[in-house]
Amino acid sequence: MARALDRAAERWPGDSRSKLLLRLIALGGESLEQRQQLDAEAHRAAVAASSGAYPDAFGPGYLGDLREDWPA
């Protein structure tokens, strides 16, 4: 934490340590939000890329056959 505060002090000279800590928390939250968005986009892209890639994997009536094995 001290190292992060030291780096923050280089970026925002003159700010108090408490203000630097608040800036770091805000920046970390923004970073996490961006990462979540990137992960979601990558997931959507992977799903789209594989969509329709295995047309023979599930034949006609596949779901009906599967549901017959489910308990009532």
Query: Main sheet?
Result: none
Average pLDDT for all residues: 94
Q: Which of globular, elongated, flat, extended, rod-shaped describes the shape? A: elongated
Fraction in beta strands: under 5%
Describe the structure.
The chain is mostly helical and 72 residues long. The chain is 71% helix and 0% strand. The chain has helices at residues 2-11, 17-50, 62-68.
List the helices and strands and how they pair.
Layout: H1 2-11, H2 17-50, H3 62-68
Helix pairs in contact: 1-2
Descriptive tags:
elongated; mainly alpha; 3 helices
Compact summary:
By secondary structure, the protein is mainly α. The chain has three helices and no strands.
